[in-house]
From TrEMBL:
Bilayer-spanning residue ranges: 12-36, 48-68, 80-99, 105-130, 142-165, 171-191, 211-234, 240-260, 281-304, 365-383
Name of the protein described by the UniProt record: MFS transporter
Pfam families for this protein: MFS_1
Top-level taxonomy: Bacteria, Pseudomonadati, Pseudomonadota, Alphaproteobacteria, Rhodobacterales
InterPro entries from the UniProt entry: MFS, MFS_dom, MFS_trans_sf
The Major facilitator superfamily (MFS) profile domain, residue ranges: 13-386
Signal peptide: none
Highest taxon in the source lineage: Bacteria
Keyword terms of this UniProt record: Membrane, Transmembrane, Transmembrane helix
């Protein structure tokens, strides 16, 4: 029998789940940047096809997210998260063995299933089941740890690629899921008093207003579109603003630290502030960064990266904390799945859409994401605390 952590062991629970989430993100969302080109070359494809398979995986994750969340609401997240590690390992193993593009796409589809049942939404729902409305701190805690997924994942994928090859790198990540992430998810609490006892009338409450749900889904879709567009095209955008290649790359490297720093602020200074207030502040960061880049050009590259990164860092946490604060913990997992489904689909389309805008309009393409960011801020201003 694997000894399990209790709900009262908050620090170890956060550390275990945060580390498992880091493995999940590093082995799915972040591997195309390193492995897509060698995958494509080996199979005689254009890298565009590998990214298309990855986009399909995000669509699959959007489709399965609500069902996974509903199961976590009923039974707790431990079993679902453990299953995700097995699914991830299967998909990565299929990629490693892929003899043809058809099997490559099948591998990515299975990885998409793992993403839908094993990344942030599932982790957030698991914590909401354990801690109820008090899950805000633990949710921030796991994003602080998993915020280093690219910092760890890209170099590790690159090292495995250089040492063995892309197929062996996929196998390596599959083994990390089985040897590290699976045992970590296995020690999480199986179920909690909150999950097993009947909710009180206060906890049940009235169903959330439909307008509030629609607005919040739009906010998540808009902000994830912007985040994914910037992740794919930031160096090109900064160079269009007049920054040199060296400056553009250096500025891009600041996004990760800015995200983590903002999450520390959320964990400390903002923890006594309603999540709606901190989310509004975060949503204003990208439009402000866009104005600075247009007005000052290349010299504002660093400021743009820091503002955008800081806003994105808090918005990632808001995906979990804002629905919890507005609507409560009852039915949280399924609701979170539905709220984030449009965001997953737009993530898949964001690199293509913004890339086309950048090619056609140059620096003026930033007004597309700035406008989307302002629309998200307007939606947040319409939302009210409950």
């Amino acid at each position: 029998m694997i000894p399990r952590l209790s709900a009262g062991q908050r620090g170890p629970v956060i550390a275990a789940l945060g580390t498992a989430q880091t493995v999940g993100w590093a082995s799915s969302y972040y591997i195309p940047a390193v492995l897509a080109v060698p995958m494509a070359q080996d199979l005689g494809l254009s890298p565009v096809w590998v990214f298309a398979a990855f986009s399909m995986a995000m669509v699959v994750s959007a489709m399965v997210g609500p069902a996974a969340g509903a199961r976590i609401d009923r039974l707790g997240g431990r079993g679902v998260l453990m299953l995700s590690n097995l699914v991830f390992a299967t998909g990565l193993g299929l990629l490693a063995a892929a003899p043809s593009p058809v099997i490559l796409f099948a591998g990515w589809a299975i990885i998409g299933l793992g993403m839908g049942i094993g990344l942030y939404e599932a982790g957030f729902a698991t914590l909401a089941g354990i801690y109820g409305r008090a899950a805000r701190g633990p949710i921030t805690g796991i994003t602080l740890i998993a915020g280093f997924a690219s910092t760890i994942g890209w170099p590790l994928s690159g090292l495995m690629l250089a040492t063995w090859g892309w197929r062996e790198a996929c196998l390596g990540w599959a083994l990390i899921h089985l040897a590290l992430a699976l045992p970590l998810n296995a020690v999480l609490p199986r179920a909690t008093e909150k999950l097993t006892r009947a909710p009180t009338p206060i906890e049940e409450g009235p169903p959330p207003p439909r307008l509030a749900l629609v607005l919040l889904a739009f906010v998540f879709a808009a902000t994830w579109f912007n985040a994914t567009a910037m992740a794919a095209h930031l160096p090109g955008l900064l160079q269009a603003a007049g920054a040199t290649t060296t400056v553009a790359i250096a500025a891009g490297a600041l996004i990760g630290p800015a995200q983590v720093a903002a999450r520390f602020l959320e964990f400390g200074l903002f923890r006594r502030v309603h999540p709606l207030a901190s989310t509004r502040l975060a949503a204003s960061a990208h439009p402000l960064a866009a104005v600075a880049l247009v007005v000052f050009g290349g010299p504002a590259a660093y400021a743009f990266a820091i503002l955008h990164g800081a806003g994105n860092g808090i918005l990632t946490i808001a995906k979990g904390t804002l629905p919890l604060a507005l609507f409560g913990a009852e039915g949280y997992g399924q609701r979170l799945g539905w709220l984030n489904a449009p965001a997953r689909i737009l993530q898949a389309a964001a690199p293509l859409i913004f890339g086309a805008a950048l090619t056609a309009w140059g620096l003026s393409a930033i007004w597309l994401t700035a406008g989307i960011g302002l629309a998200a801020l307007a939606a947040l201003l319409v939302l009210r605390r409950t």
